[in-house]
């Protein structure tokens, strides 16, 4: 398994790598997009954190036709891919690309509690639990009143026997996709070294402490999960 250097070879082959490492990657994004259509299509401001090469950006622009987009991506190479993806897409002028990671300084610049939709796929699991919790809080703080937060990432069950059983199925899936044994073992060895489990209980605790709803799981493909949460507010009267 590469060291997840998004500005190196791993980044160049990201579109293939991510589909190996995230079971049901495309289905996860289909469900996330459906959630946006049903819960956030009227968004005026959208924040996308860590879009990678930006494959989902055109669909997001279409799903939220009135929204101004801010896209945060720390990798120069990934951001370049995003620009290429958006080059001929209608609505690209609504999308601002910024080469930065999500941190407190960035949140303050973006004005906290400002985005009607916040999207962050397959980012949290790249950090150890303490950093994950910090990022959860920052994402929550970027979510406006009545706004929606969509998150996905690698997440193990609390029962380690169950984790091992699911993981073996996942590794066999990789063999079935014709990965070599050394590649499969390298991926196995990334657990808690390169990729860290997201604790759903911690996620819900953090979100509720930030006045969002508990994380609702929309999808699970082996050890990959998708959650949605909302910052509840007063009903909006439409006359």
Characterization of the model:
By secondary structure, the protein is α/β, with parallel strands linked by helices. The chain is built from 10 helices and 7 strands. It has helices at residues 9-12, 14-21, 25-39, 57-63, 76-86, 104-110, 129-141, 160-176, 181-188, 200-209; strands spanning 45-49, 68-72, 95-98, 115-121, 143-154, 216-221, 224-230. Strands 3-2-1-4-5-7-6 form a 7-stranded mixed β-sheet. Helix 7 (129-141) runs parallel beside helix 10 (200-209) and helix 8 (160-176) packs antiparallel against helix 9. The longest helix has 17 residues, at 160-176. 35% of the residues are buried. Mean pLDDT is 94; it is low at 235-239.
Question: Which properties best describe this structure?
Answer:
single chain; alpha/beta; 19% strand; disordered C terminus
